[in-house]
Design a protein that fits this description.
Elements (H helix, E strand, L loop, with lengths): L2 H6 L27 E6 L4 H13 L4 E5 L2 H4 L23 H7 L9 E5 L4 H14 L8 E4 L4 H7 L6 H18 L3 E2 L1 E4 L1 H5 L4 H21 L4 H4 L3 E7 L3 H22 L5 H4 L3 E5 L11 H16 L3 E3 L12 H17 L13 H24 L2 H6 L2 H18 L25 H17 L2 H15 L6 H9 L4 H12 L6
Parallel strand pairs: 1-2, 1-9, 2-3, 3-4, 4-5, 6-7, 7-8, 8-9
Helix pairs in contact: 2-4, 4-5, 5-20, 9-11, 9-15, 11-13, 11-15, 13-14, 19-20, 19-21
């Protein structure tokens, strides 16, 4: 390292693995352990998704990431009228414990880490997963993975919320409590800036709004009597690797320092593990173009490099055809090979925070820390994340940023190769097809489950869940009991809808 860099860098004494973790949350970083290579996948049915999972595991994936279809995300069974035309479209439909069992058929849940991108119905999908593990004789102490379980960003950016914020926060804190006692290796929340960025935010807004939400989750759990030194160690984050190579690297470095400082100063956390901002990164879906889709391989590679240089704990690389449909096997394999090439052929893994001391990187990192903290102060003055959401503060800011960015593309002040420069006639590529028969089979199977189960046991467990929802009881044991008695995702969601109501954005 050049001497002048050490002199000019006001934080030159910072090392990886030590507060405030700007340079990485572990001393050796990838020299000791590579990031987890995940591939996000969910096909038209549990059987097809299981085949894709096994294909990816055979190609070297060491962590599975499940995409669920829209009805599953918003609490409707596959046979519900609201589900017509959406079953299996953007992910796998999971309506019962039997779907979950098929999804992980012949996959050892004690040896694989499973990430589930699910929010409003996270408690139900986790219950199904728990039931499958117990059915297979796997102790809950051995299963590991993550549920996204980040409802606040749904009100801000995605829209797959069901219940009002206060009730949603109650469910989240119930999950925190249940997992801390029963599933110690499970990450109870993956607080997502990814979708905030996909909705059009700036990178500063991505961090600020994510951490504002995180503060609310921690405050809610503390009010429930939980210790942030304990549940804080199972909090993880989910960020976007967008365009802007150096800026993204600095963003990831800034994120670690901001979160560590929040936990230490605001919540008086002393457990080092609970100070660490562990995060998954997915390359930017909104940056992919339908035009010249193979260019997306290059985009994804650059974005993945920023995640590696920024010190991510797990990474998903998008497939080049995702602007057009669900990924084909060929595209998914190239996306995985991208990570494997970076890990094995660049030598980057031999160095910890290799851009440390760069004037550009350090200046950008400091700048982002300052700007994010300014926005967090503003949100505190509004009254916190929930009040800022209800007032439309976050949504308005994201919309304005998205508008300005799109305008810059339209007037050619921002160039997107293949979209507004270096254009060519589109060439058709093979796309993953939706299997209509699989959708029909899913609905028939679900109807059969409802017809043949012990209806009295199912009804009793739903009534017990309703009683629990109307009290202060932790909901997770009652949801698990309902799942074991063959109650469906839609039925469990409907009980909670009846008790909590549905949220309507004003």
């Amino acid at each position: 390292m050049k001497e002048e860099n050490n002199i000019n860098n006001s934080k030159s004494n910072i090392t990886a693995g030590h507060f405030p973790y700007r340079r990485g949350i572990y001393e050796g970083m990838y020299k000791d352990k590579l990031w987890t290579m995940r591939q996000y996948s969910g096909m038209t049915s549990a059987i097809e998704s299981n085949k894709r999972f096994k294909y990816l595991l055979g190609k070297g994936v060491n962590g599975l990431s499940v995409a669920f279809d829209l009805p599953t995300q918003i609490g409707y069974d596959s046979d519900h009228p609201m589900s017509i035309g959406e079953v299996g479209k953007v992910g796998v439909p999971i309506s019962s414990i039997y779907d979950m069992d098929l999804l992980f058929d012949k996959i050892d849940l004690s040896k694989i880490s499973t990430s589930m991108t699910i929010n409003s119905t996270a408690c139900i999908l986790l219950a199904f997963y728990v039931c499958v593990a117990e059915k297979r004789g796997i102790p809950l102490s051995k299963i590991q993975g993550t549920i996204q379980n980040d409802i606040l960003k749904e009100y801000i950016a995605r829209g797959t919320y069901i219940y009002p914020p206060d009730h949603s926060l109650r469910i989240i804190s119930d999950i925190f409590e249940f997992c801390s006692k029963n599933i110690p290796k499970w990450n109870t929340i993956s607080i997502s800036g990814y979708h905030i960025r996909e909705a059009g935010s700036s990178l500063v807004q991505e961090l600020a709004f994510t951490f504002a939400n995180a503060i609310t989750y921690v405050e809610t759990a503390i009010k429930k009597g939980l210790d942030p030194n304990v549940f804080g160690s199972r909090i993880s984050f989910f960020f976007n690797a967008h365009n802007g190579f150096l800026e993204e690297i600095a963003k990831f470095r800034a994120a670690r320092e901001i979160w560590a400082t929040i936990m230490k100063t605001r919540f008086k956390v002393t457990n080092e593990k609970a100070l660490k901002c562990r995060f998954h990164v997915q390359t930017g879906g909104s940056t992919l173009t339908a035009q010249q889709p193979q260019n997306n391989i290059v985009r994804t590679t650059i974005q993945a490099l920023s995640a590696v240089l920024g010190g991510a704990q797990s990474i998903h690389t998008n497939s080049y055809d995702e602007a057009l449909g669900l990924p084909t096997e060929k595209a998914a394999k190239i996306a995985l090979r991208t990570q494997q090439l970076i890990a094995n052929e660049t030598n980057l893994v031999k160095f910890v925070d290799p851009l440390f001391g760069s004037d550009i990187i350090e200046t950008l990192t400091e700048k982002y820390i300052l700007k994010v903290n300014e926005i967090l102060k503003e949100i505190d003055q509004i009254g916190g994340a929930v009040k800022a959401i209800e007032d439309g503060y976050m949504q308005k800011n994201i919309s304005q940023t998205a508008y300005e960015y799109q305008k810059s593309i339209d007037n050619n002040s921002t160039f997107i190769v293949g979209l507004n420069c270096y254009q060519e006639k589109d060439v058709e590529i093979d796309l993953q097809q939706i299997n209509a028969q699989s959708v029909n089979n899913q609905i028939k199977k679900l109807k059969k489950i409802k017809k043949n189960r012990d209806s009295a046991s199912a009804a009793k467990s739903l009534e017990e869940l309703k009683t629990a929802a109307e009290s202060n009881s932790n909901l997770m044991p009652f949801i698990i009991s309902a799942a074991k008695n063959e109650c469906t995702l839609g039925e469990i969601s409907d009980i909670l809808r009846e008790c909590f109501g549905e949220y309507k954005m004003s």
